[in-house]
Specification:
The chain folds into three domains: about 325 residues, no CATH class; about 30 residues, no CATH class; about 150 residues, 3-Layer(bba) Sandwich (Glucose Oxidase, domain 1), CATH 3.50.30. It has about 600 residues and is α/β, with parallel strands linked by helices. The chain has 23 helices and 14 strands. β1, α5 and β2 form a beta-alpha-beta unit. Bound molecules: 6-phosphogluconic acid (6PG). The site of 6-phosphogluconic acid has 17 residues, from α6 and α11.
Length: about 600
Amino acid sequence: MNDLDPTVARITDRIIAKSKDGRRRYLDLIAREADNRPERSQVSCSNLAHAFAGAEEDQEALKLHRGPNIGVVTSYNDMLSAHAPYYRYPERLKIYAREIGATVQVAGGTPAMCDGVTQGETGMELSLFSRDAIAMATGIALSHAMYDGMLLLGICDKIVPGLLIGALRFGHLPAVFVPSGPMPSGVSNKAKQAVRQFYAEGKATRAELLDSELGSYHSPGTCTFYGTANSNQMMMELMGLHVPGAAFVQPGTKLRQALDRAAVHRVAAIGQDGDDYRPIGQCVDEKAVVNAMVGLLATGGSTNHAIHIPAMARAAGIQVDWTDLSELSHAVPLIARVYPNGSGDVNHFHEAGGMGYVIGELLGAGLAHADVMGVAQDRGMTDYAREPGLDGDALAWREVGKSGDAEMLRPATDPFQADGGMRLLEGNLGRACFKSSAVDKARWTVEAPCRVFQTQHDVAVAFASGELDRDVVVVVRFQGPRANGMPELHKLTPPLGVLQDRGYRVALVTDGRMSGASGKVPAAIHVSPEAYAGAGGRSGPLSLLRDGDMVRVCAETGTLSTSADLSQRTPAPDPAAAVGTGRELFAMFRHLADEAEKGGSAMLASAGL
Ligand SMILES: O=C(O)[C@H](O)[C@@H](O)[C@H](O)[C@H](O)COP(=O)(O)O
């Protein structure tokens, strides 16, 4: 293992310094919570009876306080394919717990949205804030104070960040995340995108498109592209919150079951009553957060994490921003290419060495912190650089060896790109993120007259009528957290991709989000401050742009600017708040949300975190 890379060391020190007060307050809180944790033997018998009444065969063990009682927070629903396998989990987890004299109770459920289902639809405007609703639901589940540890069942985009934020507010408890793995590969993501582009151009029928989509999304398990859900799994490994290597093992396999079983046994082993106490609030420290950022950059992960990492870190008293991410990006090489940044999917990535290989390379190059607490048998990250397998029925970890596919995974000494997957853009239009790993370097700079839109639907209409057939920067504004909850605008990818393939220089500029599955088209996203002013607020510069203004997006120099003189202009008026699809229920989240760079969260802002 090499010495720590100087940039990683410097940024970690900076994060530690700026988080000093917040982190101290947080650690004091969890120490107090640990000290004040109600001894179950002292809790009122009536309260206990309420808690154990439904426990059936575990009632006796709970009554006698035989072993740790583990609370499961599950985000099961069977519309979300990734979460469908969780249906059978509670029963299994209870059995695994009994093997070691522990008990498992389902503490509560959380909502879980599928961004694939709501993409381009009004339901997507609830998506970012569903993360905070999940954190709050996690808090409600754990508020019963009957648990000695937690198992967190969630995979997809907002669910892992929401579960982690909620769990961190119970940071005196140990926790293990339990993923259930990707579905087998179907129609390749590249072929799926090609049919979408054909359809956008009128060259494929709706029936052909649906067949292609169903060939891709075909069974229970996580979608196979490297989007937000799978980036979540990467981060949980690099933060040490999984049983090592649990991320990408498919559902319904013996290995998956062995990993789930190990998760129960691990969380029971690292509780406050044992001699190896590892509360999640200590596992998630500044170094673990830096590891998550490094992993995101090294693998070209989802841009959504530029919003979620600051939010998750805040819940543990830690402050990070896009400057930290961007500076790290200069030091972290891109060592993985998974669709949308390459052609293989997460199953191929896993076969080629997967997370074990990535972590081994990052540790070897001094880019990741080895000395995080983690939940693995041996403290630290070393176990995460191995891959799990079965020796008979027993779980065993083996060395990963060389990359099994040099098109997909490369050593840190011979990477795909010398720097990581994300750039910060700045200028007179604000601050924005640019996913450089997904965009051909020849397209890192686009300067063209802009067309300004207020909805993604209007972009589709302009595209269909041929109005966008030219070099153009497409600006889609009023898509920030306070305007409409900051939806993903991934449905713009096929039309903009078509324009690009027709030979035009095209870029997108928006205060909204793109999906983890977006790539190819250069995009300045999450522009902050957002265009929307809100009561008593100030409109961001995007609200001043007009059709025809020259806009420059440059990932090389980190620029997002216009040559137009904006100083005398009046901002475009805020759009009216949308109602329907439940959006009116989320008005308070929109009113109170802070900026994307801080996590776009009303909950954290209001809590003073
Ligand atoms: O951030 C993400 O990872 C996406 O929101 C993802 O959850 C969503 O399902 C995509 O919209 C589907 O991607 P495809 O366009 O490849 O089907």
